Amino acid sequence: MSRAFSVPAAPPAIATAHFAARLSVETDVSDVHADLESGADMLVVDSRNERAWLQGHLPGALHLPTADIAGRASALIPAGRRVVTYCWGPGCNGATRAALELAQLGFPVKEMIGGYEYWVREGFPVLTPDGLLRRPADGLTAPVGDEACGC
Predict the structure, then answer these.
(1) In this structure, what are the phi and psi dihedrals at residue 128, rounded to the nearest 5 degrees?
(2) Alpha helix locations (H) across 78-121?
(3) CA distance 19 to 21
(4) CATH code of 110's domain
(5) What tens digit of pLDDT does each residue of 56-95 get?
(6) Considering Cα of 51, then 88, then 73, then 34, what sign does the dihedral take?
(7) pTM, rounded to two decimals
(8) Is the residue at 73 inside a domain?
């Protein structure tokens, strides 16, 4: 007996709706990196606190902690601007909370799954008080020597 299919797979229509819904609210670090490199019209929001921001953040990101979104987002982000949120990593739901706050304010928003952790682990650059840093890609999260996995 298959453990993976001990509960039968959903019918294609249900699976299609499920996966389309996920992709409508989530993106990954490789896609965000590619979009930033190509100059796509979007804003990346770092929802972490000041200490985390200073430890390192995505170049070009706006620092807007989740607790400040309701009071400051409308003054900092143009109406209708597409937004991607991130926090520490997959064990943190701060980016989810930030995305919810922004969605409630009317912004088109997605959460960057993997967060800062996977951005760093995939070898993408981060800005720190010492300047721009880039660690080698972690072979468990990205192909070493390649910008993206090709998926």
Answers:
(1) -125, 175
(2) 94-104, 115-121
(3) 5
(4) 3.40.250.10
(5) 999 999 999 999 999 999 999 999 999 999 999 999 999 9
(6) positive
(7) 0.93
(8) yes
